[in-house]
Amino acid sequence: MFDPIEKLKEYVRHASVSADPKFQSGMDGARDFVATLLRDMGFAVEVVPTALHPVILAKRGDNPAWPHVIIYGHYDVQPPDPLDQWHTKPFDPVIKDGRMYGRGTADNKGPLMAHLAAVGRLLEKNPNLPLRITFMVEGEEEIGSKHFKEFLLANKEKLRGDFVFLSDTGIPNPDQMVVTVGLRGMFACEVEITGPKSDLHSGMYGGVLMNPLQALAELCASLHTPDGRVNIPGFYDRVIEPEKWEREQLATLGLKEKDFAAFLGIKEFHTPPGYTPFEAIRFLPTLEFNGFSGGYQGEGTKTVIPAKARVKITCRLVPGQTPDNMRETILATIRARCPKGVTLTITEQHSAVPYVVIPPDRSNTPKDQSPVLARAFRALEQSATDVWGKPPLYLREGGSVGLIADLKQVLGLDAVMPGLFLPEDNLHAPNESFHLGVMQKGIELSEQTLAALAKQ
Amino acid sequence: MFDPIEKLKEYVRHASVSADPKFQSGMDGARDFVATLLRDMGFAVEVVPTALHPVILAKRGDNPAWPHVIIYGHYDVQPPDPLDQWHTKPFDPVIKDGRMYGRGTADNKGPLMAHLAAVGRLLEKNPNLPLRITFMVEGEEEIGSKHFKEFLLANKEKLRGDFVFLSDTGIPNPDQMVVTVGLRGMFACEVEITGPKSDLHSGMYGGVLMNPLQALAELCASLHTPDGRVNIPGFYDRVIEPEKWEREQLATLGLKEKDFAAFLGIKEFHTPPGYTPFEAIRFLPTLEFNGFSGGYQGEGTKTVIPAKARVKITCRLVPGQTPDNMRETILATIRARCPKGVTLTITEQHSAVPYVVIPPDRSNTPKDQSPVLARAFRALEQSATDVWGKPPLYLREGGSVGLIADLKQVLGLDAVMPGLFLPEDNLHAPNESFHLGVMQKGIELSEQTLAALAKQ
User: Fold this and answer.
1) Could A217 and B214 be called an inter-chain contact, meaning their C-beta atoms sit closer than 8 Å?
2) Strands B185-194, B286-295: parallel, antiparallel or unpaired by DSSP?
3) Shortest Cα distance from A42 to chain B (angstroms)?
4) Helix, strand or coil, per DSSP, at residue B120
5) How far apart are CA B13 and CA B105, in angstroms?
6) Please, what are the domains in chain B?
7) pTM for the full model?
8) Residues B115-151: pLDDT tens digits?
9) Would the CB atoms of A293 and B297 count as touching at under 8 Å?
10) Which SS3 state, helix, strand or coil, does residue A160 take?
11) How are the residues of chain B apportioned to helix, strand and coil, as percentages rounded to the nearest 5?
12) Which of A64, A272, A320, A432 gets the most CB atoms within 10 Å of its CB?
């Protein structure tokens, strides 16, 4: 069996930033790395082209009587900037205090490596394991899985499985397994305001026209109320309140607001009334500004009124909401709030439908839940209890993995999602890292779960 | 005599951006160019070091009975960005349709070249011209003449003149000379808001904390009222209303709002009530945002809540206001408007005192006005009338030339400022250019004015 830590290092060295074409060789390298590893494990590997970054599809086992698990991962990572805030080089992994530092270590190279190692071990012990396994590893997750739905539609026949198994969600600490049972969706857009036809001298022309930066600041400022709610009429209308057991599971976690504030490095929370920060993250939609730019940003001053200003906005959506049923609600308000005298341009960016799955044996478990899915949840519960010494919690999470909704919609498959990254892992931020103790537990969890599933 | 157009081309090729240390060789080149030209014209040239960019001081004539004119210019230019919006290379001057394109052609290399050529001609005709002339050409005008006041204090004795003569202001069209008799002052600062201790994933943490971009947008949005006034208590308290003759001179210009809006490329003006845009530019203070940044600004999306957001603000000040008497009014409001839960840091940047000079023979001309200054104004009026075929107008302008207030304060000298650049010249913006017909008129204006002054 390969050494998962050494292999992960090798994997992280491929700078596979899907958002930026100048990282093409990193994308190619990461994809080759995964394909080769799977081939060495005895899988039949296909690299399926898409309009941008290909998907790796690797299969073993062909007895239709065996359960069929589809293990998902992504080989692309977030851009590493701001580079000056990294303490180590983002694509030169370093192990320190039980963690591996590097872009993509936690999102999602480390967690995928845990499943690869689990399957490797399992097949080494039992090459005839009565389980069909398909690895499906895509390269566009960080850019919204742009062509993944097309890929699913085109490869539906190969993906007739029982459920999808993946780790691209989090746990609150190394001692508590959390199975993610819901993800927020997303609606993203870029809003540009154009004023004068070119940049103007702010002395010669200041004070007589609407400055695009001012107009955009006014528009942005209008989108929240002082109590932390999103100030868009109808924004909360379709929100489905969580089930009682979900709030209870969350309370069981015993998270402390004070610790959370200290972890984030903030003075206070700014959460809508009636929700703890932990609830707001999971159960409420948001509107966040991800980038704002316009005018001179260099050293010193430049007395300019810029011709344009731009803001990047993402709204997280919750069950009941979809990009389609929220689009007009959001965009109509943005249009209505644009000050006079300037021109507004909205460019829609990627979106994701929210997702919820109900584990077996809950008050609201669907009656028609697939037996293999129910077995998988039960196998996972047992393995997690063995490895962690206590049962897992089932929680929704604040992030979005839009493809989960696509898997449900296109393939009809639900997802079983044991989390493997920690809040301290700095996903999408400088100094991303992955906890190697959690990785070890993740390998055992995946191995035991799959073994149990194969036995039944 | 040298060819002023060829010489200007040569001058513009030196990329003398004072704000950015990587343009040091351009700064050195531009300075050497001016010093050499003045030496060739028979001036005694000194290059006087300052803490950053040296000042060129060049003198001719030493009979104390002669009037002494100090001709001011600056050899530094604005940064050329955004580079992708230039149609030609900013430091490779190109002549097209009677204009020379390039960074600094109008601000201030072309206008200075007009005075250099005028003096060159004058001295060629009469090497014994009974006039003391000192050229004083600095290299930090575009960064707020940072060390110019120190320079003036240290070189007071050499600068015992009668008035300062300069062209670093504008005219509305090539057919109307305007003498600038007032400039707005400036108060500049950068405001930074810090939220969480590092960039955060907007899915995992969105909706529970004050996003620094949102906080800064809210702060910025609070600084204007919908009618276009600055929303800072006390902001207009010290503003001195212009004299009646000033409003009349401005009305004489016959500027049309429709043409002005078309020139700026805006749909409508956003001017405080009771002022035309032309009046607001000259007579009212402003608060403008010159740059706003924070978060991801690259291609595509990055779902991040940035740790920091920054805005660059400049306030233009008018007579009655000074950076010192306005500082606390402005900063106290900015501090008070910062939303809770984030940290505000304000860095003050360069400032300038507003300036006004009253030409002779006006209702409010000071009784103790220097006779040589009055003669200079009258000589300029006559020359402008000869060259343009109609009398000049005397107007305040919206821009700031802070050093003018320093010249007044340190040397006790007023400034005589015939404008030479046009609205179309794109100062501080891409595709800056200078009208060569106006340059020619400027040479004649300067030559005749100085000749008349020498005669008297």
Assistant:
1) no
2) unpaired
3) 36
4) helix
5) 10
6) 4-183+354-455 (3.40.630.10), 185-239+285-352 (3.30.70.360)
7) 0.81
8) 999 999 999 999 999 999 999 999 999 988 889 999 9
9) yes
10) coil
11) 35, 25, 40
12) A432
